[in-house]
Fold each of these.
Amino acid sequence: MGDELVVARDLVKRFGRLTAVDGIDVEVRRGEAFGFLGPNGAGKSSTMRMIGCVSPRSGGDLRVLGMDPDHQGPHVRARLGVVPQQDNLDTELTVRQNLHVYGRYFGLSKAHVRAKAAELLTFAQLTERADDEVESLSGGMKRRLTIARSLINDPELLLLDEPTTGLDPQARHLLWDRLFRLKQNGVTLIITTHYMDEAEQLCDRLVVMDRGRIAAEGSPTALIGRYATKEVVELRFPPGEDPVDVEARLTGLADRVEALPDRVLLYAADGEAVLGAVHQRGVDPVSSLVRRSSLEDVFLRLTGRTLVD
């Protein structure tokens, strides 16, 4: 095994007639934070479950930490940390007891688990709540405890499925800081997320998945440069004015013009210049905004704006 901790080639996962993962190639390198982005049903969680050795693949080749998860699952799992989308802590135990019990599952000595638990409580900023029952913790505290618990065995690879879903901005930023520190300490992260700002903050590289396939791969900066422009102009109009009609009046002003039900987007290198040209054509929006392009613009261009159930 070289620098690649996860290597997938033509990886497939089927559930009956449904193909959830349709022949993808993925490499995750040691020490990086790698992201899976995609709408619901894109195949992200199915891929993560195969990497985590809890769902056998239907086809293709997969190596995790140099091993075949279908035949060497226990050996792989012993070197993984997993943060599920929903916290599955034992709410009747204390914070400290959750760490102690989980550590014993890995066959670690009591002395080692006690020392490691104390270290992780400090890392998760939960030392003062160590002897409180989990039920009394806030959502952000529970999430930090779930991440701390996943580190009890000093994993080489940490899998995080939607790690900050449902948290307020302060809790999200604190978790980002904890995850960034883990990466600095050499832990390899694989993350699924619906938050584009989270992917931009945490991921060195990522793939955008759609309908079981990979639509694009690269760093957040590279993907924005490839599929978007430097800036976006957002124009909003009063009720009754059709954005599609407005779009026709703006032809040629930007690299790309997109009419949405409530606004018009113009993608260009110089947003202020485009906004000036909009006014010169006699188009008078109720409000306008010039912003930098983001990973969300890339995501929506690649996967569409239609709601996927």
Amino acid sequence: MNTQQKILPYTTVFIKLLKGPVEYVEKSTWEKLIQYKVELTTFLQQLGLTLVLDEQDGYAYVKHLQTEEEDNPVTWIQRRSLTYEESVMLVLLREMMAEFEVGEATNRELIKKRREIKEYAELFFKENASRVKFLKDIDRLIDKAEENGFLDKTENHDLADEQKFRIKKIIKAKVGSEELDHFYQQLQRIRETKELNESVQPEEQKV
């Protein structure tokens, strides 16, 4: 007997969500997600997952439900651990997003050149003995942010510093307003200390 198995209409959306966030720019997937969000939410809950959907900013992702019943719950989602410097870069990108949203922005998306991100980040990172290595380290953090899904390269350029990136709004889910305020206060103190050290020249010792 030939039994035809029915495939759920939101299966492709479910698979994409397991791999990472889904954004409105993925038009067909996003439309299907919105269409089946109720059914998808119910299905995910059966797997111990919950759908986080922000229709205004245009992103969605899944996370594990918080339960105390199982000591070793099934892990569906790949977890990424960030280094301290990668976390700082993430906070700086989130701060750029916050400044963009409180301004009179005419565009929905925040687009920045690699050069602009580096100039912003320089104020918060401690420069080492070699400026060339210092800038390469910031480049590496930018590339890592792209790899982790927080930046999307929108335009290649012969000059690397002129490459354009879209700062993805999913970063708002990773760094909340309270976390942003806490980290920003710390980073602001670091920046002020750095600027003070650069402006104050040590006096020559008298013999």
